[in-house]
Amino acid sequence: MIALEERLRKEVQGDVAFDAVTRALYATDASIYQIEPRGVVIPKTVDDIAAVVGVCREAGVPVLPRGAGTSQCGQTVGNAVVVDTSKHLREIEDIDTAGRRVRVQPGLVLDHLNARLKREGLFFPIDPSTASRATLGGMTANNSSGARSIRYGMMVHNVLGIDAILADGTRAAFNDAAPNGVALLIERLRAIATREADEIAARFPHVMRRVGGYNLDAIKSGPFNTAKILVGSEGTLAFFTSIELLLQPLPRERVLGICHFPRFHDAMASTKELVKSDPVAIELVDRTMLELSRANPTFAPTIERYVNGRPDAILLVEFTGDDASLLRPKLDELDERMSALGFPNAVVKVTESAAQSEIWSVRSAGLNIMTSMKGDAKPISIIEDCAVDLEHLADYTAELTQIFEKYGTYGTWYAHASVGCLHVRPVLNVKHDEDVGKLRAIAEEAFALVREYGGSHSGEHGDGIVRSEFHREMFGERIVRAFEDVKDAFDPKGLFNPGKIVRAPLMDDRSLFRYPPGYEPIKLDTVLDWSDWGGFSSAVEMCNNNGACRKVSDVMCPSYMVTQDEEHVTRGRANALRHALTGQLGRDALTSDRMYDVLDLCVSCKGCRRECPTGVDMARMKLEFLYHYRKKHGWRTKDRIVASLPRYAPLMKYANAPTRLRNALGVLARGTEKLSGFSAKRSIPVPAARPFLDDSLRRQNGPPPVGEVVLFVDTFNRYFEPHNARAALRVLEAAKYDVIFPTVRDRGRPLCCGRTYLGAGMVDEARREMQRVVEALEEPASRGVPIIGLEPSCLLTLRDELLAVAPSDAAKTIALQAMLLEEFLVREQQAGRLKLDLHPLQEHKAFVHGHCHQKAFGAFAPVVQTLRMIPSLEVVPIDSSCCGMAGSFGYEIEHYEISKKMAERTLLPAVRSAGENDLIVTDGTSCRHQIADLSDRKALHVARVLELALR
Questions:
Q1: Which residue of 586, 626, 674, 806 is most buried, as measured by CB atoms within 10 A?
Q2: Which stretches in the chain have pLDDT values below 70?
Q3: Largest Cα–Cα distance of the chain, in whole Å?
Q4: Residues 566 and 886: beta-carbon distance below 8 Å
Q5: What is the dihedral sign for C-alpha 504, 510, 512, 513?
Q6: Exposed e or buried b for every residue in 549-566, given b needs 16+ CB within 10 A?
Q7: DSSP letters along 359-370, please?
Q8: How far is CA 913 from CA 485, 554, 885, 908, in A?
Q9: What is residue 554's DSSP assignment?
Q10: Strand partners, 914
Q11: What string of DSSP letters covers 842-906?
Q12: What is the rounded distance in angstroms from the CA atom of residue 303 to the CA atom of residue 315?
């Protein structure tokens, strides 16, 4: 492999990586399989792809095209050189608005395309649930569809042309024009299709949702669109370099009806009637998914708002058009149909677009919500998307349920009821031989049932390793040979993605599994409490590779958003950890420098904690890793400087003048750069000359006017920005609360949450700090007194890491009472207890950036709500991810540039667009410092804004 790697490096402009960790990152997709590739290439140009194909053809090494790597059936794993187009080849090459066509590169993500097309009033209508990261090349290779296929069809109906590189190096255009340069190839395909015409007519399932095998039925004796044969070919026939797509007008209006059913069977039996209302989509969500969604902090509010009671299943029925007045009657008609079916008053009507988006987000996350089950037994994709005619849907699902019961399990159900294609997964533990045996038995019986009903064993997610071996039973021996003939006509030496669609391995070959025989985590004495996950390794295994972390919206994953590297996405980090924890990368891989590189750019934003549908908490995993890594390698000077801040902070007031001098004189900043590890390009926070000292109101006789609160002032707001703590105290006093401060044992230094120690991996030191916190706060917390904090990263440590580092009943009590100032104020306002006399400000608009931890804990909305208490103030939330400072991260020499890139993605452009008289508000001290360093604006804590508005 060394010679192959060296040659590829010479001929490819993009990145070439053959190291063990990179190969591990690309060894899995969202299926149950894991196959280590020979190496990975990240091409920058189409010429790079051609070079890879040429080099690998000469070396006799397979090539595997890959996009987002979200395949359910193992299409994008193999012992080949993986070529990832998703980083660089993601351009829109041409838009023909009048002709409703667009030409794109294969690595372009669907959501990114549609965001651009929205300006033209157009969209690409194939909408898989992975739209936030699915690439158009992958969707074409997989013949993807989605929720609205009843109206718009599948990729094969919407792909107009494909430019591709063939196995012999030929660059060819496949479209509806006369073949140019591949005429002989097309004639061979016609001969195969003509030879098997009768067999094709007899054996191909007569349902729209059929993606198994090759599209022989698209080959005509006369002119035909030759691109159709490549759609759904799973990278086995050619390497796509450009794709032309058919666009549709973007509907101006949408309405949604949520139909509730007391029994799952009722929902299935009713679908064929509801389709008669001419909806764009009918999507199923079953009880399992509803209950798992209730347990997910991201989706629970949506379920509570829009799902009545505890139905066994719901159907999401959507209607679209350009006239809202014509759509609302559609919901009334739906209601009438439901009543006629015996389900009166069973439709929740949703007409607001924001509410609809909330509901669809739950449905889109369906697969990942299902796999968020803790423990080794998971819903497994083997019969994932079989499709049957609607007439048979209820009977098919009933019999399939009986098959599951026969093998002592049950299935999870969701997805495309409108076209009879249900995503159904039996819950099995594929680490055990017994359940792997059940896996094959269920597959064989289920596929036989599908054939009995004239359906397709693959209705959306393709063949890959899971289903390719079953083509013989589905299509018959002659069609399987015809598929092989198609493969050989395009790729006689088996260069492209071998083992998929034709000549496939057994689907239950455990040597190909993510959990092969002998899979076992190494013994590790963890420093954190992982009992809720069943252990550290089980927590890491919660990542099912669905790739939701590859999106470029919300918070997760800020480093990936700027690097676009698999290594810097939550999924990549989890894969690397899993390989290290199971010895697959060598004995000491967990504490290696290479593993440190993988986790280095994780800024512990905790976005994955909330946004990952399966609940992967990479921030906590990095903390566990850092502890073990630093124990082995030692702590750096800058680690100790930052970590020990709470201990020497009381003396920092004497450093006020020297720090100002350092920030003012570049030569001084450069002189201390190497010693401190902090970039000379950064200003260092200036300690306050007069820090905040805990004080309280004198107690009056009788009960307090409103209630009692503890003000927990963190190190940053105490010693660097004491004006924020003073503002919070004044606001609470103005609202008539009796403010008390923690009683510290022996009148020692003020409390610290331990955050700075955690950031350095000094968990033992953090535990000691936390135990001081528990001692001081246990008594008021046990009385139900709110513990109010100002800095999100510190206060929310009491709701999160405290329970993992120093777990106890007292810690749980404190966690329940810990809240940010704005969370407390909103709670009190909603309870009718808040009495703040606020007046309009001189400024009329406030742009608000949410700290990552606020968003991760659902605590950002209260900031906006609190600011809206100020009369006449327009509050504009900034749609931003991490500011990039992330504690000490952005100060460090090696992280300065990437910190800037994170800030420049969305935050700084929004700040710069704000008017001169507009407020910039953010609660995070790091966020405020980043804004001050990289723009000419100063951001305020919400407490300061409220103080300004006090009468």
A1: 626
A2: 367, 695-704, 746
A3: 99
A4: no
A5: positive
A6: bbbbebbbbbbbbbbbbb
A7: HHHHHHTHHHHH
A8: 60, 20, 21, 8
A9: S
A10: none
A11: S--EEEEPPPHHHHHTT-SHHHHHHHTTSTT-EEEE------S-TTTGGGBGGGHHHHHHHHHHT
A12: 13
Q: Give the pair of three-digit tokens for residue 285.
A: 């969500």
Residue pair 790/923 in contact (Cβ under 8 Å)? The answer is yes
* CB of 294 closer than 8 Å to CB of 305: no
Q: How far apart are CA 505 and CA 503, in angstroms?
A: 7
CB distance 756 to 642 below 8 Å: yes
Determine the number of helices (DSSP H) and then strands (DSSP E) in the chain.
Answer: 44, 25
* pTM for this entry: 0.94
Please state, in angstroms and as integers, the Cα–Cα distance from residue 133 to each residue in 78, 545, 618, following that order. 21, 12, 19
Specify the amino acid at residue 157. H
Q: What is the mean pLDDT of the chain?
A: 95
Q: Are 69 and 548 in contact (CB under 8 A)?
A: no
**DSSP state string for 386-400:** -B--GGGHHHHHHHH
Which residue(s) pair with 838 in the sheet?
A: 950
Do residues 40 and 87 touch, judged by C-beta distance below 8 A?
A: no
| The pair of three-digit structure tokens given for residue 189, joined into one six-digit string | 């395909």
> In b/e form, how buried is each residue of 188-201, taking b as 16+ CB within 10 angstroms?
bbeebbeebeebbe
Question: How far apart are alpha carbons 867 and 883 in whole angstroms?
Answer: 21
Strand order in the sheet with 92-96: 92-96, 101-104, 239-246, 159-165, 171-174
> Closest Cα to residue 630, out of 618, 620, 622?
622
Residue 94 has which token pair? 């041409």
For strand 378-379 and strand 313-321, is the pairing parallel, antiparallel, or unpaired?
A: unpaired
Q: Which two tokens stand for residue 230?
A: 């490549």
Phi-psi region of 881 (alpha: psi -120 to 50; beta: other; left: phi over 0): beta
Residue at 633: amino acid letter: H
531 near 352, Cβ under 8 Å?
A: no
C-alpha triplet 156, 157, 159: angle, nearest 5°: 65
CA-CA-CA-CA torsion sign (801, 802, 808, 813): negative
CB 481 within 8 A of CB 454: no
Share of the chain above pLDDT 90, in %: 90
Dihedral sign for Cα atoms in the order 531, 535, 540, 544: negative
Q: Is 782 left (phi over 0), alpha (psi -120 to 50) or beta?
A: alpha
Which two tokens mark 211?
Answer: 């993606």
DSSP state of 697: P
Token code pair at residue 42: 């990240």
The pLDDT tens digits of the residues spanning 285-327 come to 999 889 888 888 778 899 999 999 999 999 999 999 999 889 9
> Helix, strand, or coil here: 722?
helix
Residues 419 and 408: their CA atoms lie apart, in Å, by: 29
CA 382/CA 446 separation, integer angstroms: 10
Task: Give me 213's structure tokens.
Answer: 């095998």
Check whether the bond before 557 is cis (ω within 30° of 0).
yes
The 3-state DSSP composition of the chain as helix, strand, coil percent (nearest 5) reads 45, 15, 40
Amino acid 748: pLDDT: 78
Euclidean distance between CA atoms 358 and 360, whole angstroms: 6
Strand partners, 423: 414
H/E stretch holding 316 reads: strand 313-321
